[in-house]
Design a protein that fits this description.
By secondary structure, the chain is of the alpha/beta class. The protein folds into four domains: 9-25 and 97-195, Calcium-transporting ATPase, cytoplasmic transduction domain A (Distorted Sandwich); 260-278 and 634-833, Calcium-transporting ATPase, transmembrane domain; 284-311 and 495-633, HAD superfamily/HAD-like (Rossmann fold), CATH 3.40.50; 322-438 and 448-486, Calcium-transporting ATPase, cytoplasmic domain N, CATH 3.40.1110. It contains 28 helices and 21 strands. The strands form three sheets. Strands 8-21-20-19-9-16-18-17 form an eight-stranded mixed sheet, with helices on both faces. Strands 1, 2, 3, 4, 5, 6 and 7 form a seven-stranded antiparallel sheet that branches. Strand 11 (383-393) and strand 12 form a beta hairpin. It starts with 8 loop residues before the first helix and ends in a 7-residue tail after the last helix.
Amino acid sequence: MSDISGLTRAEVEARVARGQANRVSSKTSRSIGEIIRANIFTLFNGIIFAAMLLVLITGDWKDAVFGVVIIINTAIGVATEVKSKLALDKLSILIAAQHTVRRDGADVQVSHDEIVLDDVLWVKSGEQVPADGIVLEDYGVELDESMLTGESRTVTKKPGDTVYSGATVVSGSALVRVSAVGEDSYAAKLTAEAKVFTKTRSDINEGINKILRFMIVIVVPLCALLIWSQMRLAGGFSVALASGAWRQAVVQAVAGIVGLIPEGLVLLTSLNFALAALRLSRKNTLVQELDAVETLARVDALNLDKTGTLTDGGIALDDVVVLGDGRAGGRADAEVKRALWHVTNEETPNPTATAVQEGLAQEGLAREGLAREGVSASTTFAGVQVLTRVPFSSARKWSSVVLRAEQSDSGEARVTRWYFGAPEIVTSALDEDSTRVLELVQERAATGARVLVLASVDMSVDVTDAGSVSEEETPHIDPRARVRALIVCSESVREDAEKTLAWFREQGVRARVISGDNPRTVAAIAHKVKLTGDSAPRFLDARELPDTPEEVAKVLENVDVVGRVLPNQKKLIVQALHTQGHTVAMTGDGVNDALALKEADLGIAMGNAAPATKAVAQVVLVDSLFSHLPDVVARGRQVMANMERVASLFLVKTTYSVVISLGVVLLGLNFPYLPRHMTYIGWFTIGTPAFLLALAPNTRRYIPGFLRRVIHVAVPAGLATGLSVLASTLAVPALMGWGDVSAHLTELRTINVTVLFVLGIVMLASIARPLRSWRGWLVAFFACAGVAGAFIPFVAQFFQLHIPSGSSAWVTLGVSVVSVLVWLVIRMVVDRFWPQEEAR
């Protein structure tokens, strides 16, 4: 036992006072306050709130109904993201582990946060290393550092070597002196940059914000001009202020302003993103940011981490290749497998030994014997006694067991020592020429397999004295032993990986594997799951990568697998793909993946990922199943392809609101409708039907350019609508012989509202095509529902709707027909001289 005494109580207290304790903040997601602020303080909410406040101060509250969209939109975003946050936080709650430190010469138990700098710390098998340290004494310790480096193979440590917080002790133990705690630890430094929150880029929201920024430029002067023009029609400022007509002038000005804002599009985007997030949550997929749903639709480059994605992190027994004197099969197979079972049947087996045990169990081998699945009882031994054992040590890289077996056919006893371990270590100790054995090992290792050898030597021990066989003070391999079998293991490949990768290939998404492991090994696993179909994946060692994103991008064009990748190189690879215009998704689970996940357009963390990794990811696969990704991407594509289809409905309103507002100012007209009219028409021709259309199946990959394509459809229709309403406002009074237009303002607004409704239904029918399906019934339903609402007294009174009668009815019909013809003509001209760019 070591004589290292560790720190004294006074030394520990002094370090705690200096802030050298092992405390580190490790948040798993944004705080609720951050989520609320992000959803409330938006450009859209600011504009709508200002307009609503203006109406509430000066007009009827009924004309401020449009402001409800702020509450709904904000509530949807907050509720959905908070739900994901709570689920993620719950996922990350772990029982605080206790750790053993040596203080004042005695071993004591302390919590993670109570460890201090320079503490002498025990790290034991099965534990996670709580702080960085330097190994003082080694007792066969072996670490899994894959969460930090991406390298899945275990690492042995010797006195003087460094261990890092976040690594897991696979076997053995060690005494280490803590060299860094809290924020100074390796893992904390690696994730410090990743903890800075960055908002997901959204093409559709960027398009909407461009519209909003444009609106801000024209809203203030246009609102002032509208108020001025409406007051002038009321007899001037002095008369309007004296009579109170200024209030109605402000309300009418706001009617023009509100029409400019595509509030329904913002609300529908949030609704559809929220519904997509809800549906994905039912498949154990958490969407932390609603905008990530859109990114799902745009992904065309997918970077996969090997461990946890293509493989489940475990090891599987692939084959037991019996060698030697031609006795393969029968007795030799049975003897080898029985010996393999016993040599790996340690009290605390390492992952490889566990995999061997599980693999043999699947073949029917149990402690009681080998008489299973085709291995007949005549080829087995009646019983086996374990005389001595040398447990596996990462320092030796082998283990051994001495077995006494009674042969059922002769009744004789046989004592054999079996060795199990690394090929190069075991064979180097043998007298026999092992060249052929090592060649066979290399052949299988080249396929990504992990190969070990099983060797044996008969012992010259009398049966009656077998129980006295003892292990030597210094274990060694008997040079007379002969290699009996190759034990071929490999990382356990996920059953769903091949099918999932095939789906991505069919969808035009280029998948690459980015791993910290040996590139040849990773390429072999990638070939096994058909990353590139039937062809062999092309691989590269990351040490050969250039330093600039532009040069890396050129290299990546001909590479499918990159191995030996450092954390900063994963980030560099994402940056390189960005230089080529790709939308990149990145999967990962380790701290080493955090920076790359943050740099990617879409970070996807596994449910068992490090807290820092989940904190920067937009999507978390709670059950860590790679097979969920097609559902994730398909849901995003459905939402975005349909959103592009229906977005034109909302921007038509924006376009004709601009045309009408400018026409009202320039021509000195009364505003042709009220804000509540826009609310009513929007429900039946835009908002509700658009929401239903956005739920239709659609798997087309979304291509950036949303705003350009939507404008192509919306501007001609909006222009036709705006010109029709202005023409109606100018022509109808003359046609009807109204001398004083203000006396017939209700009738004029009824005609204009009808024109807006008819053209809205025509536009809806155009967007919903083909109509020989449920889409046609949907258009017919909302057309009838909109008309029916005007006949319901409460609805008609609330929204100031009137049924045209007498000559007004015929004029309304004629104006509506002419307006539709104008819309068709403008549409034909635009299609002739400005062909639509298809969303590929």
